[in-house]
Write a structure and sequence with these properties.
alpha+beta; 6-stranded mixed sheet; 4-stranded antiparallel sheet; 3 helices; single chain; 20% helix; elongated; Immunoglobulin-like
Length: 133
């Protein structure tokens, strides 16, 4: 009886672990401060996901389609997004210029069919490089 119970518990645990459709990813947004007034062109997202496991074209950032992607020196997936498109996100525009934190969420699919998601907070400011007179 105890052996049957252990087997049932083991099977249930495996079902729970393998049926999880979402994999958590650690991400780091670079730059970690988005300056609305800057002339930046790219926002880069570094992940802890092996490059070969990610379906690059499936990746989005707060709903924005990925511009391009690559592998870093450690073999991890790196996503690139247009700065202008990131700055145009409603949550970024609504943050204002006072250093409000905004959550950026990277989502996509893995080759296994599972999905992944990771979130990082960035500060939003609006500071031009012009010197005040």
């Amino acid at each position: 009886m105890q052996r049957v119970l252990v087997t049932v518990v083991t099977i249930l645990a495996l079902l729970v672990l393998t049926s999880s459709p979402l994999t958590a990813a650690e991400i780091t947004v670079s730059p970690n401060v988005i300056n609305i007034a800057s002339a930046s062109t790219i926002v880069t997202i570094h992940t802890d996901l092996p490059y070969s496991l990610v379906v690059g074209a499936s990746v989005t950032l707060n709903g924005l389609d990925i511009s391009w992607w690559k592998s870093d020196d450690r073999g991890y997936f790196v996503a690139k997004f247009s700065s202008d498109e990131v700055k145009a996100l409603d949550e970024v525009k609504e943050a204002g210029a006072d250093g409000t934190l905004v959550k950026l969420t990277l989502e996509g699919a893995l080759e296994s069919g599972e999905t992944f998601s990771g979130t990082d907070d960035v500060k939003v400011i609006d500071v031009s490089g012009e010197k005040k007179k």
